[in-house]
Structure prediction request, 779 residues.
Amino acid sequence: MRAGIVSTQGKRRSHPDTLGMRLLSHTLIGCAIIVSALGLRQPGSSAAWAAVTFPTPPPAAAVHPVTETLFGTKIVDRYRFLENMSSPKVQAFFRSQNTYAQAVLANLGVPREHLLERIQELNNAGVGVGSVQVVGNRYFYQKLEPGQSNERLYVRDVAPGSPETLLVDPQATSPQLHQHQSLNFFAPSPDGKYVAYGISGGGSEQATIHVIEVATRTVLSDEITRGDYGVTSWLPDGKSFLYIRLQKLAPGAPSTAKYENQHCYLHVLGRNADDDPAVFGAGLDPNISFAPYDSPSITISPVSPYAIGVISHGVQNEQTIEAAPVDSVIAGHPIWTKVLDTDAQVTNFDVKGDTIYLLSHEDASNYKVLAERLDTPDLNWAVTVVPPGDAVVSEISVANDGLYVRSRQGGFGRIERFPLAADGSVTGPATPISLPYPGAIDLFATDPRDDGGVFGLTAWTKSLRYFSIDAQGAVTDSLLKPASPIDESAYEGREVFATSADGTKIPLSIVAAKNLQLDGSHAAYLEGYGAYGLTIEPYFSATRLAWLERGGVYAVCHVRGGGWYGEAWHRAGMISTKEHTIDDFVACGQYLVTHGYSSPKHLAGEGTSAGGITIGGAITRHPELFAAALDVVGVSDALRSEFSPNGPSNIPEFGSVKTEVGFKALLQMDAYQHVHDHAAYPAVMLITGINDPRVPPWELAKMTARLQAATSSRRPILLRVDYDAGHGFLNASRTQADELLADEYSFLLWQLGDPAFKGIPTRVFHRQLQTHHRDRIPK
Prediction:
C-alpha cells in the first residue's frame, strides 16, 4: 500500500513501499558490494541433514465464521476475529506463529548461516547513499557505511572530494529505547542553515519532527509529534516552515480516523507546535473543499512569488492545485486561486516566476509537459512544452539554467533541458544530456537558484552512482558514492516479452549469468508489483548476488497496474481491470518455464505490499506453477483493507466495498477469499512488521490461517513477524534487512531444491491437516 507525501521541492511522491522499501534496500543499503572472489562457502555433506525434524506447528486457528451478503453475494470470513490486534488471543496467535516460523528457519542450519554471512559480506563492503538534495553549493544526503546499521544524515560541498559532516544519527537520538530509530525524511532550509528532519521508532513511520543547526550541529528545542508526512517547504526567511500534521485522536476513535482531517501548519522556529496556525486544509477556506482523507500541503520555491497548495486525494495520482501569494502564506492567511482540478490529470509540477510547469496524462498516456501562467491561471491557454511521445515522461525539475525533463523508454532513462526566461517561459528547444552509460535514472535533484543538478544512474548489473550536470550540460562523477569493485561481467539483464491471457505482450526483465543453460533447472525468483502506476525500473542489488552466484535467476514482471507504458498501463490493472495484474504475473512465470529458465518445481514468486494482490492471486489461481512464494507485508484480504487505518486512502486505486463495482473488483483481487480447501498450495512465507501502518498485520495473519487449514501439499506455510519493524524494509536497520533476506533466500532455495539444502525435507506436516474441514466450517 502507499501513503502519499510531498517533497520539499513541491512534487508529490510516494513513500517507498516494496518497491517501497525493497527498492530502497536494494539501491541504498544494498548497493555496497565486494569482489566475487569472496564466494559463498559450500555447506558440508548433505547427509548431516537426514535426521532433521521440524518443530510441532502451533494449534490451528479457531474458526469463527462471519457471514455477510454484499450485493447479492454471500461472503464467509472464517478468521475475522484475527483483525482485533488488541485481543490477547490474537497476540498469542502472532507469537506462536512467529515462534514456529523462526524454529523452522533455524532448522535450515548451516546453509542459512552461510547465506547470511554472504549477504552480510555483500551488504557491508561499500557505501550506500540515497535521498540526495541540493541546496546552494551543498549536498544533503543519507548514507549507510560499512558496519553501520542505520542510515545517517550528512552534508558536504558539491565540489568533488569535499569533506563531509555527519549531522544526524537517528539511533543516537534515543539510545535508551528498545526500538531502533530511523530517519524518515529531511528538509534543509533555503540557506542551508537548518535542517528539519523526522525520526520514528520500530518502523512505525510515526515521525517526530526535529530541527538541527548545520554549522554547530545543535538540535533546537522544536519538537513536533504526529509529523508522519513531513515538512513540505521552508519559507524564504529560513526561520519557518510548513508541515503536515495528523490530528490527535480522541480516546475510542476508530482506527480509520488516523489519517482523517489532516492540515498543513506554519511553524516558526522556537514556537510551541501546538500554537502553530493551520494554513491549508478542511474548514479553513469556504471556497476549497476537502474530503476526509485528502492530504493538504503547501510548497514554496525561492524563484517564484507564488505558494502552491496541493490537495492529494488519498493515493490518487491526480492532484488539485491552488496558488496564493507567498506573502499571504507568511501572514498566515493564504489567498487561494484555483489552478486546476483532478480532471486536468496532473501528477507532478514545478514553478519559476509566474509560470507553473505541469506533468499531465490528459490525452497523453505517456504524459506531456504544459506551462501555465499563475497570475491568470487558465489551462485553455497552457503551452505544450513536451508533447506526448514514445517515451514516458516521469519528472520535471527547475534549475537556474532551465527546465529539466526526465523520461524513460523501457528501462532506459534520459534527461533533456529546456531554456527558460526570467518569468519562466520556455525560450527554445530541448538540449539532450549525454548520460555516462545506458541505465535507469534513480533520482534527479536541482536547486532552482543554481545551474545544473545531480542524478543517480543504475542498471541491472551496474551499481548506483551519482553524476552532476553543469550549465554547459557536461556530466561528471559527483563522488558522492564510489563505484562498485565487483566484477559484473558474468551477469546480464535481458528484456523479453511474455503473452498474457488476453494476448497482451508483458515486459519481463531477467537477470542471470550470461552463459546460463536454459534447461529448466534453475531456481527462479519472479517479482511483481502492479499498483499506483509505479514501475520497478532496473536497479543494482549487491545482495542479489547471493542468489545469482548459486545459478539462480532473478526476474521482474512489469504487470499492468504499474507504469511501464504510462497511465494506460496503470489503468489496465486497477479496480475492475485488476485481474490483468494477476494474469500478467502468471504469464511471466509461464514464460520462464517454457523458455527453460526454470520449471514449476524450481519457480518462486514474490509480491510486496500492493504486490500481495499479485502473488496472492497467482498462487491461488495457479498453485501448480510455483513451488514457493513470499507474501511480504502484502495486501492479502482486499475486501477488508478498507477498514484499516490506511485503507480509505487507497480506495481510488482498488475500489470500495460500498459500491457494487468496487465490491466485485475487490472480491476478484482478494487472495484470502480465493483459497480453496484441499488444494496443493506452494510453500509460502508471509512476512509482516507488527508496527506496519500501511498494510495491517492481520491481513497476513488471516491469509496464514486460511492457507494452513486448506493446503494439501504439506509444504510449509509460515508467518514471520518482526516486532521492531513496520512496512517491510521501510526504515529497517541493515541488521534486520540482512536477517530477513537470509530467511527469504533460505526458505526459497530450500523449497526450490538448491543442493545446499539437500536432505532437508521440503514437506512440513501441519497439525491442521489432521482435522476435517467440512466438520469445522459451516457451509
Q: What stands out?
A: DSSP finds 15 helices and 40 strands in the chain. The CA atoms of residues 459 and 539 lie 5 Å apart. The longest strand covers residues 491-499.
